[in-house]
Amino acid sequence: MNTIVTVVNGSRARFFSLQPAETPVYESSPRLVEHENLVNPENESADKALWSDNSSGNRSSAGGGAHGYDDHREQHRAEYERRFSQSIAAKAIKLAHKQQAKSIVVVADSHMLGLLRNGLENSNGFSIKELAKDYSKLSISDLHAQLASHHLIPAQRKPGQ
């Protein structure tokens, strides 16, 4: 049962652990408990802070055509995503150690999942399970149901079931 769940999109990561039922009289299965969120401030404000002019051309003062130039925005965005994914992987591994987890479930879109794989390569023996979906905005109960439907965590059930 010792499982950490990390749900990610490009600007936010949510970290959960699977915990025993808080009130075993009413519920018999483990439940997801959210521990923290990690926000990527560089992704949230990258365009505003780094590029005040959203155009990628330079206008001639004589009214001529634009001269294109490459301001490397895509390279900067890729670097922000890479750094964010590294911090997510490090935080997931740290939480897994703290909770004495055996596995880490990572849920993210396919692009972010690829970035996260690099950071989780050195996961020190944790079992890594992946799901290529964006569930970052789901409520905890909806997230639990979705992960259970993909057989990544046990389904919630009432006592006696």
From TrEMBL:
It comes from the Bacteria. Residues 52-61 have a biased composition (Low complexity). Residues 43-75 are annotated as: Disordered. InterPro entries: Host_attachment_protein. This is Host attachment protein.
